[in-house]
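Continuing the batch. This is chain 6 of the set; chains 1 through 5 are on the previous pages. Same settings as before, nothing changed between runs. Recording input and output for traceability.
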Amino acid sequence: MWWRKDRHEAFGPDQRRAGEGGGAQEPCGAREWDRTTVAREVAQRVVRYRVEHHLSQTELGGRLGVSQPYVAKLERGDQAPSLATLARLAQRLGLEFHIDVTPTTVRLSA
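Output for chain 6:
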């Protein structure tokens, strides 16, 4: 699957933009997708926690000691949270994060 940034739509390998070659060329956005993997996984856990506990973003922010806009930013998964943020989520919400870092990947598991 390829990502077309200018129109925010996904398309398959047979539907590349004009001027894109085939072969070893990396798909548009693949690096960004890989870079935000941990952020997206944390976002899913935060949203799941908030929904399961029937909390608004403001209420969750109160439990975490952060603002509602910060909770919204976490839930979007745009950027990886800091270790301090992961520690805060673990301590205040009881969530667990196990991070595996290798030369080729950064993975988050339960």
